Amino acid sequence: MSIVTVKRKFQVVIPQRVRERIGVAVGDILEARVERGKITLTPKSVVDSAISEGLEDVRKGRVRGP
């Protein structure tokens, strides 16, 4: 277990061992949520909405030919 301090601008440092375990690097995007009185940070990837829609079309077989 790691203990962190909330800084003046409400910033916290994620301890190195924790970052390494989940593979978080500088510039990564995290989703912050409150669950049962606890803060949960989950790594997320951002995908352009047009790409996301295209991938959904491929998954559902709505795409034809090259």
List keywords for this structure.
27% helix; 66 residues; 21% strand; alpha+beta; two-stranded antiparallel sheet
Write up what this structure looks like.
- By secondary structure, the protein is of the alpha+beta class.
- It has two helices and two strands.
- The protein has helices at residues 16-22, 49-59; strands spanning 29-35, 38-44.
- The chain has a two-stranded antiparallel ribbon with strand order 1-2.
- The N and C termini lie far apart (52 Å).
- The model has no long low-confidence stretch (mean pLDDT 89).
Strand order of the largest sheet: 1-2
The rounded distance between the terminal residues' Cα atoms is 52 Å
What oligomeric state do these chains adopt? single chain
Q: DSSP helix count?
A: 2
Helix content: 25-40%
Radius of gyration of CA atoms, rounded to a whole number: 18 Å
Poorly predicted residue ranges: none
Approximate shape: elongated
Mean pLDDT: 89
Structural class: alpha+beta
Instruction: Outline the biggest β-sheet.
Output: 2 strands, antiparallel
At a glance:
The chain is of the alpha+beta class. Helix content is 27%, strand content 21%.
Secondary structure elements and pairings:
Layout: H1 16-22, E1 29-35, E2 38-44, H2 49-59
Antiparallel strand pairs: 1-2
